[in-house]
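Try this one yourself first.
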């Protein structure tokens, strides 16, 4: 496990899971990403099913990226952050649209990080980065393993920097997390990973 950004993978999307302590971590992470990020970000943050979600508003106030609560069949666009609404699973149907589901809870959670990651792997295959942040359960560990097996990029917040260590540590314990880092380094890493690869892609297309 290291934070060397050199990789041949071209990332077309980022999926991120968080639970307890996730709001502060995401605000810090997203506020340090470029506003012209050429990929979409899909987020599952565990929330109480009966409360109005202010996540999109709170996160959006600290970043130039467009942050929206996901809606069924909404069109996927780059430089957008799509937040799963309370009590709905967030799924990626194809590279164009999102689906919401109120199927049974997974890992006692709806929305489920594992289900988001699983749907993303089906669509983006190896062209995907999966991120696990702070949290107090093991949701996302199975999903991060699926991303790794598909050849995608797997990242976890370093447990010592996380407000709640269980979720990132559970992901790391699978042996399928390639990169472990704190939030500031993670924002730099994702920027380098996505921007650099897309710039190289454009240059290669001109050759």
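Now uncover the answer:
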């Amino acid at each position: 496990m290291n934070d060397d950004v050199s990789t041949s993978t071209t990332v077309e999307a980022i999926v991120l899971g968080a639970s307890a302590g996730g709001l502060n971590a995401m605000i810090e992470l997203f506020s340090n990403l470029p506003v012209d990020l050429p990929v979409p970000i899909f987020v599952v943050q565990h929330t109480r099913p009966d409360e109005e979600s202010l996540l999109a508003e709170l996160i959006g106030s600290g970043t130039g990226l467009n942050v929206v609560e996901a809606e069924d069949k909404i069109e996927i666009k780059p430089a957008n952050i799509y937040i799963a609404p309370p009590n709905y699973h967030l799924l990626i149907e194809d590279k164009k649209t999102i689906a919401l589901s109120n199927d049974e809870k997974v890992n006692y959670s709806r929305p489920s990080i594992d289900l988001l990651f699983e749907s993303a792997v089906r669509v983006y295959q190896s062209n995907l980065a999966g991120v696990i942040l702070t949290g107090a359960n093991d949701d996302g560990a199975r999903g991060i393993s699926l991303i790794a097996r598909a050849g995608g990029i797997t990242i976890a917040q370093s447990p010592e920097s996380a407000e709640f260590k269980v979720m990132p540590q559970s992901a790391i314990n699978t042996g399928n997390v390639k990169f472990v880092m704190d939030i500031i380094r993670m924002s730099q890493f994702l920027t380098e990973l996505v921007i650099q690869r897309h710039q190289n892609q454009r240059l290669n297309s001109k050759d």
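Discussion: The chain has a mean pLDDT of 92. The beta strands are 13-18, 41-45, 66-69, 80-83, 89-92, 98-101, 128-132, 153-157, 179-181.
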